[in-house]
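Section 3.1: Structural characterization of target chains.
Under the original work plan, the team committed to producing a structural model for every single-chain target entering the pipeline before any wet-lab resources were allocated. The record below documents one such target. The sequence was received from the expression subgroup and is listed exactly as submitted; it comprises 380 residues.
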Amino acid sequence: MYGWSCAAWAQTHRYKLDFTLSAKNFVDTIPITFEEGQIYLPVTIDGREYRFNLDTGSSQGILYTDSPFGIGQRLGKIEVQDAHGHKDSIQAVRFPSFRLGHLTISNYSGTLHRPVQGLRDYDAIIGFDLFNKGLSAKIDVKRGWMILTDRKKFFRCESGYKWKYRLLRFVPHVKLSPYPACSDEALFDTGSRRLYVMGRHSREVFSEKVPEFGTQIEGKGFGSRSIGNFGAEQSDEIYYLHLDSLVLGGYTFADYHTLTTQGYSRIGAGLLAYGVLTVLPHLKTMTFQPYEDNGVSRVGNSPTEIAFVPVPGGVAIGMVREGSPYHEWGFRAGDVILSIDGRRILSIADYQNFPFIEGRTYRFHIRRADGQETDLPFTK
């Protein structure tokens, strides 16, 4: 139900890789956790352990103003752009030195952001500059580890499905096919939880050039569902897609429900639920080894029917699919949730922490866009 994306897509200038590593010619195995479609790395600062999110959709690291280990050195203002194309000028900062596995990383820089209340259960972000620095990695979320190395030939014997990536504003983009004769370029963004979302522009191009692509569209609506570092995407038309097949590097994902986003097409961390990924920055190549390799994985996921987004002082309905039970109960995009069974909802965290019980019906008191208030039933 949430469209949270961690991505602060790229910095537009002052991009530097001047951070230093404590070792050379090393190979290290780092424990990782994979929770709700996100990769988390344990790091140590001044003897205390913290949790960093690994976000390949961010060109550099991200700190938050409520950081538990401090903000570090301020480096001045820079211009950044998030995954939805929103731009802003924000503070650049230098991280405190931190230990990742047996490696100490010093002078690591990033940007400083205000936290989105209730949507973060980690302390900071490590971006794709970890790989742009020249480090290769093999990520296996099922076994719970990431092998990190500066040896260019260490993974030379890895087999699997390979694809090239290109750097655009210092973050990786890959080619894929969501339908025969349709080629999409997507940001490879582990800050996005989904396997794949399609950018609005790509959908428009496919619909115009390949009329048969219309068979993949199962409905449309209005609203927003994805949240970046500068807030939710703009409300606009949303198309609900049921892709027969999604082909990446020769590997096929079948029977996949997704939707369009107002930003860029993205391949997200959902890919990692299906196999091991190796990133080789010196070749600008990724290799995918499916956990079960018969050339195709059937996803068979359910379509998204409702999404909640934070708004100042509360939480609102970002989108609701026409024909869904939520739409029939009366929910509409833009409705602000004021209370649930009389319990006030003042933030997205209040909604997340509400003690819902599966199958039970609740009374949502909401305020419409025109200011009118009403009660609606909601069954979890």
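Residues 32 and 41 are 5 Å apart (CA to CA).
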